[in-house]
Amino acid sequence: MRTDRVLYITTLSIALVLLAALPLMAAPTPSNQPTMPNCLDCHTCKNPTPEDMCLKPCPTLQAAHNTRKAKHGLSEAPDTMRLDEIADLYQPVDFNHKLHAGMAQMGNNCGTCHHFSPEGKIPPCKECHMPSGEETNLRQPGLKGAYHRQCLGCHREWSHDTKCVVCHLPTEGKKLAKGVDKTDIMGISHPKTEAPKTKVYTTPYKQGPIVTFHHDEHVDLFGLRCVDCHQKENCSYCHDLAKTVSSRKSMKEVHAVCSENCHATDNCAKCHGMSEKPAFVHAVTGWPLNRFHERLGCRSCHPTGKKIAKLNNECTSCHQNWKPGAFRHAVVGLTLDDTHLELDCESCHIDRKFGARPTCDSCHDDQRDFKKVPPGQYSSR
Amino acid sequence: MTLQRRDFFKIAAAGSAVLVAGKATASTESTSADFSDNFGVLVDTVACIGCRKCEWACNDQNHLPTQELKAFEDKSVFARHRRPDKSAYTVVNQYPDPDEPDKKFAIKVQCMHCNAPACASACIVGALEKQKEGPVTYDAWKCIGCRYCMVACPFQIPAYEYDNALDPVVRKCTFCYERITSEGKKPACVAICPNEALTFAKRGELIQLARERILAQPDKYEHHIYGEHEIGGTGWMYLAGAPFTTTELPTLTSEPIPPRTEKIQHAVFKGFVPPVALYGLLALGMYTFNERKKKVAREEDRHES
Lengths: 381, 305
Hints:
The complex is a heterodimer of chains A (381) and B (305). Helices cover 25% and strands 5% of the residues of chain A. Chain A is mostly helical and 381 residues long. Chain A folds into four domains: 61-186, Cytochrome C3 (Alpha-Beta Complex); 195-279, Cytochrome C3 (Alpha-Beta Complex), CATH 3.90.10; 281-311, no CATH class; 313-381, no CATH class. Chain A has a three-stranded antiparallel sheet. In chain A, strands 1-2 form a two-stranded antiparallel ribbon. In chain A, strand 3 and strand 4 (210-214) form a beta hairpin. Helices cover 39% and strands 12% of the residues of chain B. In chain B, helix 1 (2-32) runs antiparallel to helix 8.
């Protein structure tokens, strides 16, 4: 009886251990794990226990956990807000929310200011931050501190001015531009700026200190939006009135802007050189663009992914319906007659070099020119 | 006449011995106490925007001569480093960031309300006193105007009304003693601070809070809480984004000032032995001298007779 009991308990414990180990074995690699929020976002102590969770009064646990998931569209954002809860010594502030929400696209989106923005409605500051004198949490600024820190954190860096009148004056609401791409900051609320054409950087890399960046090329040719590259941007990089703040990006961060989604970093000489590099010409890839392709943006041919993949130089890899008989030759400006339509492409386009001038010589030895007399019209003459 | 004079010295010596003994016990009590329950203020100079609102609030609270609130937006005063004086218990000064000279950081200066205040130790009449709640208060009624406190203070805070010939008093930050103890409010400067660069709480909590702030942003803050250990700790403590040596806050050791000076003083008067010995020696000398005088007189008498 006693042995039975021992056996039973042993079996049970082994089963339990195995059960507990099961999810561990099946657990994905740490890199696949979603990033956990910082414990100190919600807890005031380092090692919370079920007895003493030392939770901060706000935000709720759920809100904090959802913060990183929540996405809020610009359309949800209010235009202007009047901050007048604590106005006693100074006039209330008319805060242009839309402008800031738009600009935040180049930073950390809504999270730039709304450090706890759960799914659904974003809680107003005063839901967590108490009016002065009623604060209960030393680690959480009161409402006055929260407002001022939120604004001054950036504005004091730009204007080098902390005069109250910078914010505490009635401001006239600025009208937003209409009919533009609302997902890009330049369209929505940022005043038009003159984008640089070419920027030449001198870097500490001795083997090739000069890096030439063709800004216009990236915008016009590659069709990139401002926010595609200008992410997690330091506002003061542009807005520092005294121009004292540098972008202060580390070498890794600077390279990441180019390399994160677009350029490979295996060959330094691709960007770094001893002198300025010319703008990109497609001919360097071994495929000079003809007059038709020249008009197209990169995305028309290289649509997939941000990284531009090398394409097969067969026309049919893009023009999949271009087969003898199915190709409407008229699109190139030269209409073929029925006789020529039946020919293989190589008959005129020697070695399928479609960029080179076609020849009539392989069939006709009277040096006829298809430009003067289109194919198929000689006989009728 | 001689007897009366001798009596006065006796009384004076006994009186001062009692006084010194009394003070000695008082100061040992305060230095050994745990100050974490005292009120304190953490000045986060990284958050300070140099708006000078605290200066106005202090003047207003303490009924000091002041200008209107808007006048304090004048930043031209930062051209020179000001010191607290008889008409301003606190001032904000500005320093260039050593890393980026174009950037400035501001630092508020006022009485530090030391755990072991040198001013209170130096005061011979007990006009300056470390309260159990933390503030170092001043009682003008007791003050005799010796200004020893001004010499003793390592932060050179107490100011004197030199222009008041009849009834001058020492002026310094009061830590809004009444306001924080009986009224349960924050000090006026802390209450007005728009950016909440000043945090008012118990000293122990503030040290914990300061450590958390440094830990959370180790690149932003100097890894030093000024006032945690300086001269035995101060009630007002500072966090900064640049070394404190670039500011006007003096570099100090963690050794409190009063014990050192008091040790010397007390050694001299220890157990009242040295004064007694001195007076004994004097008495012996006088006795021998008198004996000698009598002997000479007797011999002279003998010669005459």
